[in-house]
Amino acid sequence: MLSRRNFLTVAVGVAAAGGLTACAKKDDSSSDSSSGGSKTITLGFSQVGSESGWRSANTDSVKSAAKEAGYKLQFSDAQQKQENQISAIRSYITQKVDVIAFSPVVVTGWDAVLKEAKAAKIPVVLTDRSVETSDDSLFVTLVGSDFTDEGRRAAKILEKVIAKAGLKAPVKIAQLEGTTGAAPAIERAKGFKEVMDAEHKDDWKVVVSQTGDFTRAGGKQVMAAFLQSNPDINVLFAHNDDMAIGAIQSIEAAGKKPGKDILIVSIDGVKDGFVAMSEGKINAIVECNPLLGPQLMDVVKKVKNGETVERWIKTKEGDFMQDQAKAALPSRKY
Asked: Residue 309: pLDDT above 80?
């Protein structure tokens, strides 16, 4: 996978404008206003789906930011299927949109369609998630988070949670992974393992790990199976809040107290996660900010104008524990 820390600064060219007939689940909402009499920028955006509260907030941010910027947005919901995204991107190419942006379902399998976009001279911007490519020039930039660092931060904040709870070794960890093959699932697991192997090789162990596909239903189902096979689990690391919330239901159904009998650390920072944390059911959350819309629209403008942009545009994030949850709740925008 391309290293997020080694992206270079690149310049991009201007692409032709046009309309779009999107694939998959379509939303033809658009903003037709433009400033200074110039031609309205048309952005084709393919979203992963609507699997979580984070994703819904991300979609709302993109739509509202496009409207505010006066861009014509052609939006496609891939329903968590790579083939739907590839079809949508090919439709954007056929209709000659100005810029294509998408949040890839998985990291691999994009070279062919990205080469088609490059041949059509339509710049591509990645949002939220990275891809593996044979040619770094197939996309312009990535607007998103450092998922590996989020995994590291989850491990470091778990140290504080364990110390505060007085939990003694051995620490038996269940891991709810995100969608198999997706960048956040791969990198969050990697970052967490880095810290665990370096600092807790003898006292921490991931005893069971399986994908919950970033959904509440998946988290609930997989956690129920975890508790059947490993009833002595005392820590849960969930790759997102929605899976953690689903897991809480199974923990309670098993007669255990989430946040006490099983300490829980998750990633995202959506409002429902903070509500669970304020109730003592989640111990800590590593934030992954979904409000990428304004940054994306700024990048689209620069790309359309042929300006130089950073190869990777990072979002601002924070870490939160239970005693901060109630104070943070009123200011949660997602």
From this structure: yes
